[in-house]
Write a structure and sequence with these properties.
It is built from 4 helices and 13 strands.
């Protein structure tokens, strides 16, 4: 009979120091660091399309968008790297992570979908600054937008190219056609 392996708990300070100097990104969940996987071309096109629209729209406002390499601190023991995030942090915060995410967008992949749909949805629901969380499919046109409404969350699904998905937390409405611009669904699927 073998004994279970001991889990090494990493402090938040050590995690943050390692992320500043490391070549590989990790998400941090209660003492454990998890390696981030690479993304497909389709994934990058979708995230890039959304980021480009948000970046132009939010120019000159208190909020700013980031794409994939900015950590957000959801709680004291929880750091994620969303695919696209809009934050409204006060000036002078940490240069390597943000603490007031308003809109979070994850592009789904087979390796992350379960975490994005369950663990992250629960975590973001508990973060007071988060107003909207969107899951964007990359194998078909589909966006699942979760929006905070008082103490509850409302979910809406969009599937048609001419449908418009309103991100009211930042005052921007995008058609699925804009979000999926130059995305080829006939490309090999992400492994």
């Amino acid at each position: 009979m073998s004994l279970p392996k001991e889990r090494f708990n990493l402090s938040v300070a050590d995690y943050l120091a390692g992320e500043r100097d490391g070549a590989v990104r990790h998400e941090y969940v209660e003492g454990q660091a998890y390696v981030m996987a690479g993304a497909s071309a389709r994934h990058n096109r979708i995230a890039g399309n959304i980021f480009a629209q948000l970046n132009a729209h939010l120019d000159g406002t208190e909020c700013e968008p980031f794409i994939s390499d900015m950590k957000i601190r959801v709680s004291p023991e929880l750091f994620y790297y969303p695919d696209v995030v809009v934050t409204c942090d006060a000036p002078g915060g940490d240069a390597y992570f943000r603490t007031a995410p308003r809109l979070i967008i994850e592009v789904l992949s087979p390796t992350t979908e379960r975490t994005d749909r369950h663990e992250k949805l629960a975590a973001y629901s508990g973060c007071p600054s988060v107003r909207e969380y969107a899951l964007v499919a990359q194998d078909m046109m589909m966006i699942e937008r979760h929006r905070r409404s008082g103490d509850t969350w409302e979910t809406e699904i969009f599937t048609e190219p001419d449908e418009e998905c309103a991100f009211t937390s930042v005052g921007l409405t995008l058609s699925l056609r804009d979000i999926y611009r130059n995305v080829r669904f006939d490309e090999a699927a992400e492994a």
